[in-house]
Amino acid sequence: MGYNPKKSLLRFLLVVVGVLAIAFLTIYFLFRIDMQRRFEQQLRDRAELASGMITYQRFPTRPPSFVDRENPLSLTYGYQENLSVYDLQGNRVYALNPSPAELSPNRINQIRLYREYRFSHDRYEALGVLWSNETGGQYIIVAEAIPDHGNLANLLVILMVVFVCLVAMILAGGWFFAERTLSSVTELSSQLKELAPTDLGRRLSMDHQRKELDGLVQTFNGLLDRIQDAFRVQKLFLANMAHEMRNPLQGIMSDVQRITRMDDDPDGRKERLALVLADLRELNDVADKLMIMARQESDQSVILFQPFRIDELIWQTRAALIKSHPEYQVRFEIASLPKEETGMVMHGNELLIKTALINLMENGCKFSPDHQVHLVLEFQEDGRALVKISDHGPGIPEWERQQIFKPFYRSESTAHIKGSGIGLALVEGIMTLHHVQLSIQDHPGGGTTFQLVFPQP
Fold this sequence. Notes:
Layout: H1 5-56, H2 72-77, E1 81-86, E2 92-95, H3 105-114, E3 116-121, E4 124-132, E5 138-145, H4 150-194, H5 214-260, H6 266-298, E6 306-309, H7 310-324, E7 329-334, E8 345-348, H8 350-367, E9 372-379, E10 385-390, H9 423-433, E11 437-442, E12 448-454
Parallel strand pairs: 7-9
Antiparallel strand pairs: 1-2, 1-5, 3-4, 4-5, 6-8, 9-10, 10-12, 11-12
Helix pairs in contact: 1-4, 5-6, 6-9, 7-8, 8-9
């Protein structure tokens, strides 16, 4: 399904029209309610004025006999407002203007019951009030007037004109920007279709004057960067795996061929079998590292974290390394102790931490001329554990410190030494998983120190 700007614009317009309609209707009805409130207050003020006339002026009653009942039309429409006074029997004893119709007994009773009652009377809106004077006499005062709806009608016309103009402006602006955005999307779509797996270095571009999709372009280019990195790592993986596995496999094949010809040389056969075993161990080590790396990158939620003692784990790691490489030496020193013995307990996956430590120790011994590393464990005041692994190797240049943590990266200065290029990448992944700070320090006289800062347990 393609992108249809007309449907999107129509939905947007309907939403805007709905919001504007609700807003304008709210304004109209609030204004209408306010006008009704003001009109009712005016009627109430007139009724209070009439009560004052009755109290202080002893108003002269104007009997309704003066009303010209022969021309009811002129009486009905000849004035805009009126003020009448009735006694409790419903007889009109005063009228400011003539009125063709008096109140019905039912209306009189409603005013007496509610003491203040709003009602419609012919074309008039009226307010009846029950009033008592100082002598105890009671009258019913009725103030009535024809409401002026001219302002309300004018407001309605203004709102309708403004509503239509706004909708037209929004429609025109929305159509303009929709077409502009659609052309940008079409251009991006054509560029994406031209991308090929063999041209991963190409990136999307957009006119600088059209910045509507800058964020999307940057996101796509970032995705392409990650895809290119993934392909590069994959190619590097295949190349390194072919290289790392070819040498042991060729050695195994050569040794096996020689063994088959050593019928009368048991010592030579044993020596060749030892070489085959070493090559198989190297292959197994590479496979183990790849499996651990794949597991920690695929689903970290299945990795079990448990408490363990960091000092005991270091001793176990040291023993395992020396057992597999008797020529290596690891000097272990505890520089400081925590305030409590429980401070030595860390939280994490013991097997992964052990794998990371053994890789760091093995690398240090491998690249040091004396095959020796110095490991120091100390505890800081805030409870964090600090592990330093120092070697006497050639050191790592500043520019290369980020590269060594990439999978299968091999430094040119140490390319002649056997290795898979997986160990440090695996170490960084394990440390990141455990929120351990990993840093590298070089010494002026040569050698490198890997520093691990474990968080508080």
